[in-house]
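Review box. Two proteins, two foldings.
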Amino acid sequence: MQNTDRNQSHAPDASPRSAVSTDKLPGIRHIIAVGSGKGGVGKSTVSVNLALALQRLGSRVGIVDADILGPSIPGMLGIPTCERPATTPEGKMIPAEQHGLKVVSMGMLTGDDEPAVLRGPMVGKYLKMFVDGVQWGSLDYLILDLPPGTGDVQLTLAQSMPLSGVVIVTTPQTVSLKIARRGLRMFEKVQVKILGLVENMRTFTCPHCGENTDIFRHGGGEQMSEELNVPFLGALPLDVDVVTSGDEGLPIVAGQPTSVSSKVYASIATALVEQLHASITVLKPFVWTWDSNDGAPDWAEDAARPAGSQNTPIGLLRRDPRTLSVLWEDGHRDDFDVRDLRLACHCALCVEEMSGRKLLDPKTIRPDVTPQQIVSIGNYAVKFDWNDGHNSGIYSFNNLRALGASAAAGDVENV
C-alpha cells in the first residue's frame, strides 16, 4: 500500500469522474432522519411540522413514519387508516397525500387498533419497503420519523439508506440531554452527518398573564451543541396549540402558519437547508464489479479541500487490477493492494471478537485474491465480496484511513 496526495500522477484503468448527481435515491434529493435518544420529547411533532415548514419554503416533501411498531404520523396529519394504500402495476405503494405531504406509515396498513407485532428482521423489511418500495415521484426532502433510541431501525437506516444526515430532538432537562447525546454519538459512529439539534418544549408562556416559565429548564440544547460542535437549529416553545392541532390532524404549521411556533419551525427549516447545502455527500450508493469496472463510484478531485474530513471518501478507483485507490475529502489518497485489504479483514471469521486475536492465517490467502464486487454500506463503510468466497467483512472508512496510515508506517499487521 502507498500513501499519496491527489497531485501525484497515476494511470488508472478507467478515467476518474466528477460532477455527480446529488440524488440519494432516484428522484429524491435528500433523505433526512429525525431521531431522539428517548421517547416523549415531541420528535414526531417536530418531524411533521418541519416537513410542512420545508414545504412552505417551496420544496416537495415526503414523510416516512419509521416507527414501525408505534406509528403516530397518520393521526397527526388526519390521514384515515381504514383503507390500505393502492399500488402501482409494478407493485410500488402509492403514498397518501395530506396537507401537500406524501406520507407512508405502518398505521395505514394496520389501522388504529391493530398492533404491529413483528420481529426485528421484519421491521427492517417494512422500513426498506417504505423508502424504496414507494412511488414517491420527485422530492426535495424525504423525512424519516424514527422511533426513539439506538436500536435496529437506526442501524438499518445507517447501513442501507443514503442519508443526507440526521436531526436530533431533545428537551432541555438533563436526563433528556444525556440520552440525546448517546443517540447523537451512535449516528456519528456510522458517519451519518449530524445536521443539527432541536430543543423542544423550552419555554411555556401563560396565555392569561403572559409570564414565561422554563418548565424543563433552559438552554441545555445550545450548550450541548457547543460542547459537541454540532449545529443548533433552534428552540421550540411549549405551546398548547401544538398539542391540540396535532390531536386534531391539523399540525400548527398548516393550521396556524403565523403563530410563534410556526415561525420558529420556519427558522429551523431555513437553518436545516443551509446545513444541507454545506454538507453535500459526493459519493452515491454503488455496487461495483471489480473486473469489468461496471458501477464504479465517482472520483471527485474538485471536492477535495485541505480542511475536509480525513474519513470521508470523495472517490474510489480501480487504479489497476491489484490496486484500490481511495481519495479522501482532505485531498489525501491511499493506494491499497487488494490482497493487503483481504488480510486486514476484521470480521468474526478473521478476528476473534472478544480478544482481538487474528484467526486468519496469511498463508491460506492466495496471492491472486481480488474483489469480485465492492458495495457501499450507508455513508460509513464498504463491503467486499472476494473471489476466494469470503464476503462477511465490512470495512469502515475510519478503518480504511487507519489502515492507510499504518501501511505508511510499515505496520499493516497491527491495523
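Next protein.
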Amino acid sequence: MNELLLVFALLLPVAWYFGYAKGKSSKSTQADHQHSGLSRKYFVGLNYLLNEEADKAIDTFVSMLEVDSETVETHLALGNLYRRRGEVDKAIRIHQNLIARPSLSASHRKMSLMELGYDYMAAGLLDRAENIFKELVNDQSHKQASFKQLLHIYQQTKDWQNAIKVSEKLQHSASPTLKIEIAHFYCELAENCMYSEAPREAVAYVKKALNVDPGCVRATLISGDLHYSMGRYKQAIKAYRELIRQDIGLLPKAIEKIHSSFIQLNDRKGLLAFLEMAIEQGAGVSTILAYAQEIQSSDGDRAAAEFIAMQMVKHPSIKGLLKLIDLHIKHASESGRPSLIMLQGVVSKLLKNKPVYHCNHCGFDSKTLFWQCPGCKTWGSVKPIQGIEGE
C-alpha cells in the first residue's frame, strides 16, 4: 500500500498539470475534449489505486503521460518503482521508451540510460548493463556510479583483470577499502594460476597483492602455500610467520603446514619455539592444541592434559575442553569412562553445530572461510570467531 501511495504522490502534480493548467490555457473544443479524457484516465487510475490494483493503476497512469520535460522525471520514478517491486521487464520498457524519444534532452537521456543499466543489472543481463556503463563513464556526472556498477559486474563474472583496472580508476576518489579489494583480486588471479599449475605467475600476482596491501593475510597464506608446495619449507615458514603480525587469528589456516614444514626440516626445537611465540602473542586454541600435541608425543598424555588445563584457565575454549576430555578418557576408570564418553559426545555435537567464522561487517556466520562475505559482499571481513566457542 505504501508503494501505491507513492505512485499517487508522484502523479498528483501530473493531474494538476493536465487537469488544471492545460484546461485553463486551452479554449478550443478539441482541447477541452483532451482535457476531459486525461482527467477521466486519471480518475480511473485513482480508482484502481484505491482498490489496491497496483498493476492496473500504474499502467493507466503511464499511458496518460506524454514524455516531455514536465513528465520525464515521473517516468523515471515509475520505472524505478517497478524495478524495486521486482517487475524489471516493465521498468526496462519504460526506460527504453524514454531513450527512444528524439525530443529527449541529452541530460535526460543519460539519466534514462543509467536507470536502464540498473534494470539490466537487476535482470541479470550483465553484458547489456556493461555496454551502458562503459558508455556512461565518459560523462562526468555519471562516471563514478558507472565505474562502481562495472566493478560489480566484473566481480560477478570473475573478470579480475578488468576489476583491477576499474578499481584503480576509482581509487583516486573512493574509499581506501579499494586497496583491500584490489589485493584480493590479485589473490584470485594467483589462486587461478595455482590451480592451473603456473606457480611463477602465481608468485607474481602475490607480490602485486602485497604491494597494494602489505597487510593482506590472504596473499601471505598463498605465498606460504606456494613455497610449501614447491618444497621450500624455510621460505614457507618465513611467509607464515608474517601472519602473527598481520592477523594472528588466521594462523590456524596454516598451522598444519607450519607443523609439517618444521618436521620436514627435522627442526622440532624450531617448531616449539614458533608455537610458544605465537601463544605468547595471543594465538588461539588451535595453536595451543598444536603445542599440546608435541608435549603429548614427547612427555605423554598427562603432561599434555596439564598444559591444556593451564591454558584453559586463561583462555576458556570448547575445543580445548573436548581435547581435554579425549585425553582423560584414555586413563579413566571403568566407572568414570561412560560419563566422560557421554560428555565427549555432547561437546562434539555442540561444536559441530557452531559456526567457525563471522563477518565483522554484516554478521554473517559460516563454517567455511569466505574471502568475500556471501552476505554483504565485503572483502576480507570474515574472521575466525574468538572466545569460548571459537579460537
